[in-house]
Amino acid sequence: MRCPSIIPPYMLEQLASCDNDTLASQAREALRHDGQLRASRQAAVPGAAPRGRAEAAAGPGLDRTVSDAHHQTTTPGTTVRTEGQPPVSDPAVDEAYDALGFTWNLYDRVYDRNSIDGRGMPLLATVHYGQSYDNAFWDGTQMVFGDGDGIVFERFTKSVDVIGHELTHGVTAHTAGLLYQGQSGALNESVSDVFGSLVKQFHLGQSADQADWLIGADLLAPDVKGRALRDMHHPGTAYDDPRLGKDPQPADMAHYVDTSDDNGGVHLNSGIPNRAFCLASLAVGGNAWETVGPIWYAVLTGADIKADCDFGTFAQLTVDAAGTAHGDGSAEQAAVRDAWVAVGVLGQGSGSGSSSGSSGAASGSGTSRGTAPAGPGSAPSPDTQVLLRRTGGFGGLVRERPFTLADLPDRDTKNWQHLLTAPTLQQIATEEGGHPDMFCYSVTCREAGVEVTVAEPHLPEAIHELFERTLEG
Questions:
Q1: 75 lies in which domain range?
Q2: How confident is the model at residue 361 (pLDDT cuts 50, 70, 90)?
Q3: Nearest 10 degrees: CA dihedral of 166, 171, 174, 176?
Q4: Is there a contact between 308 and 221 (Cβ–Cβ < 8 Å)?
Q5: 458 falls in which pLDDT band (50, 70, 90)?
Q6: Which residues cross the membrane (predicted)?
Q7: What is the band of 38 on the pLDDT scale with cuts at 50, 70, 90?
């Protein structure tokens, strides 16, 4: 299982190849830590729970515990603040403590939901994770925060909406259980952005027209050329920085990204439903958490949504939910429908989904295509060309390297020759995958007849290390 994390892999992977050696090294370390943590927790982290059911019940009321990892990669670390205790001298501790509370407050006071699972689940967080760690993530049981590298990313406890985003992955797992693949996966990501933004708006008392609709605006260091990680109102415009690249999110179905990367582009195409929610909220006016937010929440927790829900189905469910809440033909229902029309998901005057883009079945982790690899004894030549890509994760930065086997050290050349002729990758690709923010590797080699995508936590350590060495060049 991939632990949901705030920084998309395409961002970390872009940084890993930048000219700043320190920054590149820290980004690679963040990627390495992510892989190790996911693998170690894979068996322990539960999958999506049935609606209304939790792994363990707890009492009512807010229950927070913040721990300090002391720059190690073991969680939870040393407990430094528990529920009801006063602030401490560490801003990361207090920021985490407060943001957990802000998220709990939104779900409790607005949606009458008792914590993430609906049954009083304690909210746990670990700060100061790793050395200059460029990420924050929800591992299925708690939040984990890095301090950032200080060059591109500030400490990850600074952004309230980011924490709301990650905790909402837990809400989705306990309700709709949206599959982390293709359009359903993009909806999973979008729902987290929506309620992450609402956590911030509710805390600040902002109306829809006062909100900035940015995700992660507090994370970028002053020298970064950008406003945030994502812009819900104007997807694709959040940043344009030499180290991060340009924000790749599409704003409508005409620019839908049909890809096998990133579990079918979940962090990219989430920009489309994000914009629909923002447009509907601005059209209705007032406070989004009490106007359009309840419509999205009703769909997320309702009986009609399915785990493989696509954009068109989700859009129609929200139109129907708006009619139920405010009446058919109401201004609220019209605003929701018009927003989905504006992003090209619903047709003008129609409730049907647009044919633009792709269905929720886009290729992602756990897929293999192409012919079977050559059998044992027919090892590819040293001149064989291979493309290795790493995608997925919160931000979706793509890291790739086209190479010939002869480009590699002799040991790695032999390892790749064996890997391309053995059935190992195809076998790994059949394992269950597709959880939030999972990193994936794709290997394409025409000479060996290999085109396969595998989820990182399913990789044996030796193969994972081979892939990382190859990408680092």
A1: 46-175
A2: very low
A3: -100
A4: no
A5: confident
A6: none
A7: very low
pLDDT at 131: 87
User: Scanning the structure block, which residue is given the tokens 């699972």?
Assistant: 117
Cβ neighbourhood burial of 21 (10 Å; 0-12, 13-18, 19+) = exposed
CA 122, CA 62: separation in Å to the nearest integer?
7
Which of 175, 207, 239 corresponds to the end of one domain?
175
pLDDT in tens, 302-349: 999 999 999 999 999 999 999 999 999 999 999 999 999 999 999 976
Task: With a cut of 90, say whether residue 118 has pLDDT above it.
Answer: yes
Residue 315 dihedral angles phi and psi, to the nearest 5°:
-60, -45
- How far is it between the farthest Cα atoms of the chain? 69
The set of catalytic residues is 166, 267
325 neighbors 294 (Cβ within 8 angstroms)? yes
3-state secondary structure 268-310: HHCHHHHHHHHHHHHHHCCCHHHCCHHHHHHHHHCCCCCCCCC
The closest of 168, 170, 169, 148 to 157, measured between CA atoms, is 148
What pTM does this model have? 0.77
Q: Which of 175, 195, 223 is the last residue of a domain?
A: 175
